[in-house]
């Protein structure tokens, strides 16, 4: 996997997000209260709302447009809603956030 060095972990607020540009549009990096980092395309599967502007709680983000709940680990909408935001692999090494661009199906 080709890992891209994005930023220092401290550059993403706890329970916050950061946007990076990807080849298919913006990617939102989310940081949980446990310092886990997840990356999803910055588009809700419902109406394309900016997930990066949503509220993060646990391992979910709530879309700011219609409050759809999206699982950060998988990108899947929480039932009864259906759909999936494209997920990209991330890891944190030596305090740095690394991102791998996963191909879109």
UniProtKB/TrEMBL annotation:
Keywords (A to Z) from UniProt: 2Fe-2S, Aromatic hydrocarbons catabolism, Electron transport, Iron, Iron-sulfur, Metal-binding, Nitrate assimilation, Oxidoreductase, Transport
Alphabetized InterPro entries for the sequence: Rieske-like_NirD, Rieske_2Fe-2S, Rieske_2Fe-2S_sf
The protein's name: Assimilatory nitrite reductase (NAD(P)H) small subunit
Database matches in PANTHER family: 3-PHENYLPROPIONATE_CINNAMIC ACID DIOXYGENASE FERREDOXIN SUBUNIT (PTHR21496:SF23), FERREDOXIN-RELATED (PTHR21496)
Residue ranges of every copy of the Rieske domain listed in the record: 3-99
CDD domains: Rieske_NirD_small_Bacillus
UniProt xrefs under Pfam families: Rieske (PF00355)
Similarity section: Belongs to the bacterial ring-hydroxylating dioxygenase ferredoxin component family.
UniProt superkingdom: Bacteria
Gene source species: Pseudomonas cuatrocienegasensis
Record's keyword annotation contains Electron transport: yes
PROSITE patterns: RIESKE
Keyword Oxidoreductase: yes
